């Protein structure tokens, strides 16, 4: 049964069993991220019920997210600008390093801070109307929501440099080719695909999901010897859990699904 958890007028939160769906709900401003929306995301991700095993992040209307709410910049001092970025980092870290994986369902503009937000999620699904851009250069500003780190890790800093300098906008297929999205669906079907993936992810062992979303990024940052040791430790922890034993036995006893190609 779907439960509405709304505490925020600009962010719709629905929980349906193990799947939470959080939808930016400011279509008249193309889901631009005001500080209030960013705070709402942080609070929502902090307060989802313990039963949630996976979340979908989406945006209402024809565009996923137009990035930073530019109307908030005009009055901001340098010191406030730093605080502003750290508020975003806090919220986006809750998404990237939370208890469960997050899938992003995208359409239309995924630009500036919208791309920074999407890059803090673990699995990204774009429909064919989606396009990606970093118009900070044109606006006279810089990435400030973690994108220099997160988007650079996805696509390399050279591509980020080029997108910011030239205003190069990539379409969904181009985004797929360089890792900005993992899937491209026909128009209007990103949410459907995200739900299908969410069901699959929710059926994994939660400890495996946690290791994938929280330990893998650390391993990627470590020198090889440390990375291998961290891997060995987390592998032993996950495989030692009773749930892992049961899942492995289920396969050996022919009670579990085989790995098959997907359409
Ligand atoms: C906004 C914003 C916004 C729209 N902040 N108000 N982001 C950008 O530079 C992207 C700016 N936005 C756009 O390029 C376009 O709005 C879109 C391509 C996303 C959509 O176009 P369209 O024709 O569907 O909508 P629109 O008519 O441009 O916008 C509708 C309204 O939303 C309009 O306000 P209105 O009062 O005239 O109705 C727009 O002003 C408003 N709006 N986008 C504020 N971003 C932490 S650092 C991150 C740095 C960045 O994110 S830089 C990139 C900022």
From TrEMBL:
InterPro entries for this protein: ClpP/crotonase-like_dom_sf, Enoyl-CoA_hydra/iso, Enoyl-CoA_hydra_C
Pfam families the UniProt entry points to: ECH_1
Key word Lyase present: yes
Keywords assigned by UniProt, alphabetized: Lyase
Similarity field: Belongs to the enoyl-CoA hydratase/isomerase family.
Alphabetical list of NCBIfam families matching this protein: PRK08150.1 (NF006013)
UniProt name for this protein: Crotonase/enoyl-CoA hydratase family protein
Organism, as annotated: Mesopusillimonas faecipullorum
